[in-house]
Amino acid sequence: MFLTRRRAAAIAALAAAMGVSAIDARAQAGVTAITCTNPTSGASWQIRIDYQRGTVDANPARIADAKISWHDVTDGGNYTLDRKSGDLTVIVASATGGYFLYHHCRLEN
Would you put residue 31 in left (φ > 0), alpha (ψ -120 to 50) or beta? Predict the structure, then answer.
């Protein structure tokens, strides 16, 4: 009988966790504009994340709980946005080995 109660509690906890993730997914529906800043120059710009289409600035993106990553074909950059800290890392390949750029994005609360 004790084992059955533990199983029931585990199933209830799993169902609650699945409900929370469904609520989070609905909250992220649609398009969100996020302002990013180069900390060295102070230049700012916006990126547009479309959660329904899975794109960032119309580029296909991998959207996960921790990070959003995409490749921009116009500048050749590979972008990774840390969804917790707002840190945006850009990796650009080149014949001389490439380079990294670091920015910060102001995320919604």
Answer: beta
Q: Which of 47, 109, 42, 35 is nearest to 77 (CA)?
A: 47
Paired strand residues for 81 = 68, 88
Angle formed at CA 92 by CA 86 and CA 105, multiple of 5 degrees: 15
The torsion angles phi and psi of 51, rounded to 5 degrees, stand at: -70, -35
Give 65-89 pLDDT, tens digit per residue: 999 999 999 999 999 999 999 999 9
**Helix or strand (DSSP H, E) at 22:** helix 2-27
In this structure, the number of other CB atoms found within 10 A of the CB of residue 73 comes to 10
Strands (E), 12-107: 31-37, 44-50, 55-56, 59-63, 67-71, 77-82, 87-92, 99-106
pTM of the predicted model, to two decimals? 0.71
